[in-house]
Amino acid sequence: MKDTLHIAAIWMHILGIALFVGPQFFLAFAWVPASRGIEDLPTRIKAMRTITRRFGYIGGVGLLLILIAGIYLISTWRSFYSVDPTLGFNDLRFGIIFSIKMTLLAIMLVVLGLHTFVVGPRLLDKLQAQADGKPVSEAELHSARMRSMALSITALVLVLVIMVMGTMLTTTNFSLRLT
């Protein structure tokens, strides 16, 4: 039963990661470049709002799966890997890698939150104002796009580093060594 739960939790964790990371890649490398080909600005803005909102829901479900499975995996790691209970968490590489991974996760969530709830909507608001005929300078739009792109790229790089660290944790010959 222990192995079955562990396998299910790892599968759920990976599914959550796929649901969280997949939309980021799609938006960055498929949608954003393709959307520039939509000449009608109101249509482009409406599509962008719809797509980002729906992908936000998918990413949110992914984060929830990551959280549920991750809590199970971290709460059972000592017994699953038969780790000496007298060892401190950071006595093994596992603890150090996990701590760094969680720190990067917190930073990535802040970066993503800024992009999702502040910078991205401001960019869309500027584009909407431009579509409505209100004066918006190209410098303002460029600056908003650069902030959005910088946060998106930063979040994507962080999530890839976090994924590498997760892989390191599951490589027991490496992660279960004493520090």
Task: Describe what this molecule looks like in 3D.
- The protein is mostly helical and 179 residues long.
- It contains 5 helices and no strands.
- The model has no long low-confidence stretch (mean pLDDT 94).
- Helices cover 84% and strands 0% of the residues.
Radius of gyration: 20 Å
Overall shape: elongated
Secondary-structure element series: HHHHH
Given the helix and strand composition, which structural class is it?
mainly alpha
Question: What is the domain tally?
Answer: 1
Mean pLDDT figure: 94
Residue fraction in strands: under 5%
Low-confidence stretches are none
Work out the helicity level. over 70%
Alpha-carbon distance between the termini?
31 Å
Using brief descriptors, characterize the structure shown.
179 residues, 5 helices, mainly alpha
Offer a concise description of the structure.
The protein has 179 residues and is mainly α. It has helices at 2-35, 41-80, 93-131, 138-170, 172-175. The protein has one domain.
Secondary structure layout plus pairing:
Elements: H1 2-35, H2 41-80, H3 93-131, H4 138-170, H5 172-175
Helix pairs in contact: 1-2, 1-4, 2-3, 3-4
